[in-house]
Amino acid sequence: MSDSQDSFVKTEPSLNGTDPGDLAPARRYAQIIGWGMYVPERVVTNVDLEQIVETSDEWIRSRTGIGERRIVSSPKETTASLAIRASRAALQVADVPASMLDMVICATSSPEYQFPATACLVQDALGAHRAGAYDLSAACSGFVYGLAMARGMILAGDADYVLVMGSETLSRIVDWTDRSTCILFGDGAGAVLLAASEEPGGVLSCALGSDGSGSDLLILPGGGSAIPTTLETVASRQHFVKMDGKGVFRFATRVMAEATREVAAKAGLSLAEIDVVIPHQANSRIIQSSVMRQLKIPEEKVFMNLERYGNTSTASIPIALCEAIEAGKVTPGQNLVLVGFGAGLTWGATAIKWCAPVTKQPSPWWKAARRRAGYQIASARSVWRRAARRVYAATLGPADAPTLRGRLRASIDAGRAVWEERKPDSLKPSPDDDEG
Ligand code: COA
Q1: Is 245 near ligand 1, meaning CB less than 6 Å away?
Q2: Global confidence as pTM
Q3: Mean pLDDT of the region 417-424
Q4: How far is the CA of 245 from the centre of ligand 1 (A)?
Q5: What mean pLDDT comes out for the span 268-294?
Q6: What one-character DSSP code corresponds to residue 83?
Q7: What is the pLDDT of residue 10?
Q8: Hey, what domains does the chain have and what are their CATH numbers?
Q9: pLDDT value of residue 24
Q10: What's the burial of 351, exposed, middle or buried (CB within 10 Å: 0-12/13-18/19+)?
Q11: H or E element at residue 49
């Protein structure tokens, strides 16, 4: 860990242990100490989209504020691969090795698979061998939900370091023949590292909400338990995003304002005390109508970058956070509100007292080399574990035998049973053998 972030260390005595000792444990705070983002290189502009669907740059810009978006261009670019890059960047900023992580939370609406969780693939690639990992499904509110889960674990003493990411390859689940949705979304990933700290501040409060009665407003209907994938569901394009844009718009403008108010009040902040708002980057008109007009938060306090990325769902807030930091809009001591909404319907906001230094620390070459070596070792470890699992399964019998010797014995017994069953009749004992 860099010198500048020495205060963001595991609190002692640890709250994880069963014996807290004589001392009352120090109060814990969940501080964001690392951040990173990654977007694919390929840029798709509104003009490019004019070649695919009946639309125009003017229509898209005036209705949404979006000018271009990033789209994955190779099969190797997936939700996990984007998340891994963003996560590595976050760990680098924090100067914390992946081996220290206690939990990896991946918020995503376009996971690598139905299962296993994308978070597990990220955990494996990072070499976070002590960490639990799970995906969080709250659509575009997912990243804010993830921060709330991470904060809860840290304050409860169940974790010291939690990596939270939002990662999406929405271009793979968007219907490129539907102009009402395909113009909105983009691909990308953002990640933050939260750490237990004794320094007051960090994630101060969270306000999460849901309203499942609006589940049909924004939905990917096919491929789940309700509508399992069949040739018919594919032919009728049920495996793509469907949206009632106007319904989502009305809901979003209401909850963005309400959630911001609620989370600020929970943190003991007035709206005037909020220095920076980082809203979900879905539509500039939603942000203007909710955060700016209803709450009267001035434009210069509201960070927007959707013109360049479109709506990247769970990734939009962490990507915007990274760019706000890069642009010098976030400095220690400021009060931030991150606020989002999405399918579910869901919404969420979190208030943060920013404490981490934002100036780039020069990192010695050997640290970069050590990090690279760490990821290579993680990759080798993963290959080795897969291979060992195959060999083990093929040679050592059932996995429930308690010891290695037991497994060998079980394996030999199973082989014998097969031999007994299949051996030629000439080798089987005849009833005469018993006589005499
Ligand atoms: N290009 C050109 N015309 C388009 C178009 C496009 N890409 N998409 C829709 N239109 C047309 C419609 O067909 C409609 O034509 P009609 O009047 O002849 O029927 C017209 O534009 C107006 O459509 P409408 O849906 O009323 O537009 P809108 O002003 O509501 O804007 C959205 C549409 C999708 C931009 C807007 O509703 C929105 O942003 N909603 C929120 C969506 C969102 O944020 N989703 C993600 C949540 S995480």
Answers
A1: yes
A2: 0.88
A3: 85
A4: 6
A5: 96
A6: H
A7: 46
A8: 29-353 (3.40.47.10), 367-421 (no CATH)
A9: 63
A10: buried
A11: helix 46-50
- State the CB neighbour count (10 A cutoff) for residue 321: 25
Burial of 17 by CB count in 10 Å (0-12 exposed, 13-18 middle, 19+ buried)?
exposed
- The pLDDT of residue 15 is 42
422 pLDDT band, cuts 50/70/90, is confident
In the block, which residue shows the tokens 């050592």? 396
pLDDT above 70 for 12: no
Smallest CA separation from ligand 1 atom 3, residue: 55
Phi, psi values for residue 418, rounded to 5°: -65, -45
Ligand 1 center to 180 CA (angstroms)? 5
Burial category of 53 from C-beta neighbours within 10 Å (exposed 0-12, middle 13-18, buried 19 and up) = middle
Name the amino acid, one letter, at 362: P
- 342 Cα nearest atom in ligand 1: 48
* Dist. CA 306–CA 169, nearest whole Å: 16
Name the residue of 59, 144, 180, 185 whose CB sits within 8 Å of the most ligand 1 atoms, as the mutation to test its pocket: 180
Beta partners for residue 133, in sequence order: 104
Could you tell me the pLDDT band of residue 417, with boundaries at 50, 70 and 90? Answer: confident
pLDDT per position as a tens digit, 66-76 = 999 999 999 99
* C-alpha to C-alpha distance for 333 and 335, rounded to whole angstroms: 7
pLDDT in tens, 335-389: 999 999 999 999 999 999 999 999 877 888 999 999 999 999 999 999 999 988 8
| Structure token pair of residue 134 | 């799970």
279 CA → ligand 1 middle, Å: 20
CA distances, 336 to each of 138, 141, 302 (Å): 21, 16, 10
Ramachandran quadrant class, 340 (left: phi over 0; alpha: psi -120 to 50; beta: rest): beta
User: Is residue 140 annotated as part of the catalytic site, yes or no?
Assistant: yes
Return d(Cα 281, Cα 283) in angstroms, integer.
Answer: 6
User: Is beta strand 103-107 parallel, antiparallel or unpaired with respect to 202-210?
Assistant: unpaired
Residue nearest to atom 11 of ligand 1 (CA): 180
Distance CA(55)–CA(305), nearest Å, equals 22
Which residue among 46, 106, 120, 140 is the active-site one? Answer: 140
| Cα–Cα distance measured from residue 195 to residue 197, given in angstroms and rounded to the nearest whole number | 6
Q: What ranges make up the beta strands (E) of 264-334?
A: 276-279
> What residues contact 267, with CB distance under 8 A and at least 6 apart?
204, 205, 335, 351, 353
Distance CA 222, CA 238 (A): 5
Residue 348 CA to ligand 1 centre (angstroms): 24
What's the mean pLDDT when you consider all of the chain? 91
